[in-house]
Amino acid sequence: MADVKNDFRRQHAVSKDDTETVNVNGVRLAYEIHGTGEIPLVMVHGSWFSRRNWDPVVPKLAESFRVVTYDRRGHGESEQTSGQGSVSEDVADVAALIEHLGLSPAWVAGQSFGGSITLRLAGERPDLLRGITAHEPPLFSLVADDPAVARCSRVLLNLAPQSLSGSHPAIMPVPPNSSSRRGWERACGPSFRLRSGK
């Protein structure tokens, strides 16, 4: 089994020679850009990992997107910080990276804690986004103190309680004129807009 796994990694390896760095919010972040597509896709990894977690999927995604993978502060080849940092700092970092690279509006995909960062980014800086994907984000305990997110969470629980069993929020299409869409927008404020997958 180990040989199969290693063969897969070798076949889908991403060159490690393309690493660049940028200083944002007083921290040096390491990142890479793959592909030449018009639509940018920024990938946010989870905790205890690095941008290398995305290596198996980057080659295929780079056929259609301009893919940006980066190491969050304190991870991988990015600058190690003296403390753990916060979700707010991570959100500010990815926003600054998107702005620095001129990627707005971008798709942003996050996995695990990267999914929580992605969701917070959507709430704080929707102007930077074309859309988001959040895979298994640890949600509610991280955002319980944020009144805007708490409002949105209550609406989500009221609209789709069956889809939120456990910690795996559903990603569901929202028709443009649906009562669900209007409910989200009323609860989350005028800057919050759900997108229909465009």
3D architecture notes:
The N and C termini lie far apart (40 Å). The chain folds into 2 domains: 15-138, 3-Layer(aba) Sandwich (Rossmann fold); 140-198, no CATH class. 29% of the residues are buried. β5 (106-111), α4 (113-124) and β6 (129-135) form a beta-alpha-beta unit. The protein is α/β, with parallel strands linked by helices and 198 residues long. The chain has helices spanning 2-11, 58-61, 87-100, 113-124, 140-143, 147-159, 179-188; strands at 20-24, 27-34, 40-44, 66-70, 106-111, 129-135. A 6-stranded mixed sheet has the order 1-2-4-3-5-6. α3 (87-100) crosses α4 (113-124) and α6 (147-159) runs antiparallel to α7 (179-188).
Secondary structure: number of strands: 6
Query: What is the CATH class designation of the largest domain?
Result: Alpha Beta
Content of β-strand: 15-25%
Query: Which sheet architecture does the biggest sheet show?
Result: 6 strands, mixed
What structural category characterises the helix and strand content?
A: alpha/beta
Give the arrangement of secondary structure elements.
Elements lengths: L1 H10 L8 E5 L2 E8 L5 E5 L13 H4 L4 E5 L16 H14 L5 E6 L1 H12 L4 E7 L4 H4 L3 H13 L19 H10 L10
Parallel strand pairs: 3-4, 3-5, 5-6
Antiparallel strand pairs: 1-2, 2-4
Helix pairs in contact: 3-4, 6-7
Summary, kept brief:
Helices cover about 35% and strands about 20% of the residues.
Jot down its keywords:
Rossmann fold; alpha/beta; 6-stranded mixed sheet; 198 residues; 2 domains
